[in-house]
């Protein structure tokens, strides 16, 4: 029933985490501005954007902290995930090592973040793999080979040792859907494969998170400035950090997003 009652806006702090160059900023750019940039700059510190998502009976206003994946910024992360109601942990489906990094982030969140935090595991760059490899594969034996990876590197190393499931397709995929999905399931995470480039599944990530958040544990706030997204390095969050807001490099609110 789509009754148009006045909707309550609920602010949700969401943090993006993941190895460098997996596409965190690109996912946010796609979600918030409906855009994609082949030549993004690595995030320095973190970037902040907001975007609204409309559910049946409420508007969720995501306050998104897009963190830097480079290892030298790791120690800043707790500042961004502290009190977050949601986290999007991103890996690159063409880089097996990035899933291992994502798992480490999930562990850290489960140990140190808000107990009710909703975590979505997102395999990005789906556009780089062939369709035949996107369907779930048979259960993986355990995990992807731990290829050593420089945390800051954006090079896509060829897989020295293919994952058990990779043999069924010889495209760029290094993490099978089944493997990641099984891990997500056992860890209680939402799971998506997405492409910031094409926009595939990007809105769905945030919509699903919005639907999953236990709103009864969040104090609703009516927001007065809810039109579109905005950028700010010093929001009304508890983390009054000086954030380097470099996402979109000077682009102001352009419409995009889920709802
Ligand atoms: N083909 C493809 N390339 C992508 C996708 N998402 C991001 N990229 C590219 O991957 C590179 C890194 O993207 P970013 O969004 O900057 O990655 P990041 O995770 O924010 O990186 P850090 O800020 O350093 O942590 C850029 O060249 C993007 O254009 C995608 O879905 N498909
Ligand atoms: Mg970034």
UniProtKB/TrEMBL annotation:
Q: Where is the composition biased (Low complexity)?
A: 130-144, 156-166, 222-246
Q: Where is this region: Disordered?
A: 130-180, 218-259
Pfam families, alphabetized: Ras
This protein's source sits in the domain of life called Eukaryota
MF terms (GO), sorted A to Z: GTP binding; GTPase activity
Q: What PROSITE patterns would the database entry show?
A: RAB, RAS, RHO
What InterPro entries does the record tag this protein with?
Answer: P-loop_NTPase, Small_GTP-bd, Small_GTPase
Q: Which UniProt keywords apply?
A: Nucleotide-binding
**Segments of skewed composition (Acidic residues):** 145-155
| NCBIfam families assigned | small_GTP (TIGR00231)
In terms of PANTHER family, this protein maps to: PTHR47978
What protein name applies here? Rab family protein
Organism equals Kwoniella europaea PYCC6329
């Amino acid at each position: 029933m789509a009754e148009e009652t006045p909707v309550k806006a609920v602010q949700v702090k969401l943090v993006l985490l993941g190895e460098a160059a997996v596409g965190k900023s690109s996912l946010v750019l796609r979600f918030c501005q409906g855009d994609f940039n082949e030549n993004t700059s690595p995030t320095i510190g973190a970037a902040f954007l907001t975007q609204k998502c409309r559910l049946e009976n409420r508007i969720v206003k995501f306050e998104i902290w897009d963190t830097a994946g480079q290892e030298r910024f790791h120690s800043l992360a707790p500042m961004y995930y502290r009190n977050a109601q949601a986290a999007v942990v991103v890996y690159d489906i063409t880089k097996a090592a990035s899933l291992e990094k994502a798992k480490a982030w999930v562990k850290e969140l489960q140990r140190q973040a808000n107990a009710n935090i909703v975590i979505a595991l997102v395999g990005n760059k789906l556009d780089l793999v062939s369709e035949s490899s996107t369907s779930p594969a048979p259960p993986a034996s355990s995990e992807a080979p731990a290829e050593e990876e420089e945390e800051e590197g954006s090079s896509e190393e060829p897989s020295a040792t293919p994952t058990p499931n990779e043999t069924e397709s010889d495209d760029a995929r290094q993490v099978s859907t089944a493997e990641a999905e099984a891990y997500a399931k056992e860890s209680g995470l939402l799971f998506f494969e997405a492409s910031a480039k094409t926009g595939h599944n990007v809105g769905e990530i945030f919509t699903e998170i919005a639907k999953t958040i236990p709103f009864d544990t969040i104090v609703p706030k009516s927001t007065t400035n809810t039109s579109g997204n905005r950028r700010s390095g010093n929001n009304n969050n508890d983390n009054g950090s000086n954030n380097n807001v470099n996402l979109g490099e000077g682009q102001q609110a352009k419409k995009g997003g889920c709802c």
